[in-house]
Amino acid sequence: MGEIEYRTCIRCNESKPTTEYHKQSNTKSGFRTRCKPCRKERSDARIKAGYLTKKHRENPNHEKERKARYHESKKLDYILVYIIKDYDGNGNNYCGITRNPFYRMKSHSFRGKLNTDKYEIVAKVETRVEALKIEASYHDRGYHGRIKGRPINKNNEYETELL
Ligand SMILES: [Zn+2]
Predict the structure, then answer these.
(1) Fewer CB within 10 A of the end CB, N or C, for the chain?
(2) How far, in Å, is the centroid of ligand 1 from the Cα of 1?
């Protein structure tokens, strides 16, 4: 009784008292896996990258609302194919598909590997399969992207590599 409970943070690997962790009721331990300073550091980095706004931290429903918008966007009856020429300053080009270029470019920027200033929409189609075909044709021409080569099986699944 009265003994301090410790747990190890999966980020910094330090053993810290559970008071150094936020509570999370839907997990077995009842605590977050990352300690408070590690969580803050990550959220500061994401805010700095423009990927996350302060609203995410201040409004606990923000994530839920964001997901609702995402599912809403799934209902859109179009999908866009975009390219980014010379995304890395070394003459490499990128091609990808998205329903929401605004959020897609933000996620590219956050991953930090693409210069998204010069993205262009090259096609607007009705189905994902059509979009994947156009995307694959760009990749055949040497554009980099999520799909490396052809579908890997007859269910049309692709080898993926996110940039
Ligand atoms: Zn930590």
Answers:
(1) N
(2) 26
